[in-house]
Amino acid sequence: MRHFRSVSDAEAGTLFHRLPGELRIDSPPDLLAAALGATLYVPGDRPEIARDVTKQAARGCISMVLCLEDSIADSSVAFAEANVAGAIQSLWERPPGEPSELPLLFIRVRTPGQMLRMAELCGSGLALLSGFVVPKFENDAGYADRFFEALGRIHERFGDAGDAGARRLRVMPILESPSMVHTETRTGALRSIVDVLQEHRDDILAVRIGATDLSSVFGLRRSRELTVYDVKVVAAVIADIVNVLGRPSDNFVITGPVWEHFDTSERILRPQLRLTPFTDANEPELRQRLMLGGLDGLIKEISLDQANGLLGKTVIHPTHVPVVHALSVVSHEEYVDAVAIVGNVGGGASASPYRNKMNEMKPHQSWAEKTLVRAEAFGVAAEDTTFVDLLEASMR
Q: Per its UniProt record, what InterPro entries does this chain match (predicted)?
């Protein structure tokens, strides 16, 4: 796999100063966590899941979650389990002539028992999985430990399934429980979660934030014209999650919350995309397409995600994927700053290579290291390449 693989070699050579790196299911976990990008959720009871997976992979999707939790009715769980397992087996048994590239695949489960059951149902197809997504994650009464115990049992029993060998399946916990929302329990809940995640660090790929559930604690739902950061009670929770889990010593990748809109309903507020960048790139029609799809709000929220230390995003519609990925590419200016800073631990400060800001060697060290991992995952834009150029190329 590789981000922007659909872009021709000739165009990629123009768009990128450094191409995105190759990704494999067994690539280093820090690289995979940074490379998740737009993680597309698919309800487990959806027909033709295997076809959808291959279709979205061809369109540039790098990570997908097959969901057995809130996206399906309680009465459909048994059907969805068989449906997801059948899709995994179908993908595993594809004829040799079919395209081989698949996204990183995860199953979102309800319980530890369901984790074990899905491993059994997937059989040798388990070799295609990168892991499991655990919703409403909290470390109360041993709840979290039961998922890690189930994961250990899966490794013991199915570690040699297919060609998986000793490859480790990993967990992506979703932080969305009421105990993290209410101010009187938040600090203790987060501290307890950090303890259990650190204890099982090798089993964690990334940490996800469930903004829909967090909002539901107050009976709220944001419109497409507002970002999650405009919902102050939810933004406060995100800030505390980053405060506790986003410290460089822990090195957890925390992903942005779901963007759940894709309609073209009537607007109340003005569009949130400036006209100038699209005019300069001779792409006014692209701007119009983004606004009609409500994607200008998504662009604003991704920018705020990144400013607050989040990388990647949960999405529920294929049109969101290229937007997330275009905004994840490291700019040329960011890259040369990071190269100038990383490893220079002796301290001091100097003007940036672009001569427009100050680089401080010690305070910016962690930022530089994270930026270079993102550069390996998403590539580095050429000096004159803009977000509009990347988006236009990936949305064709």
A: C-C_Bond_Lyase-like, Pyrv/PenolPyrv_kinase-like_dom, Pyrv_kinase-like_dom_sf
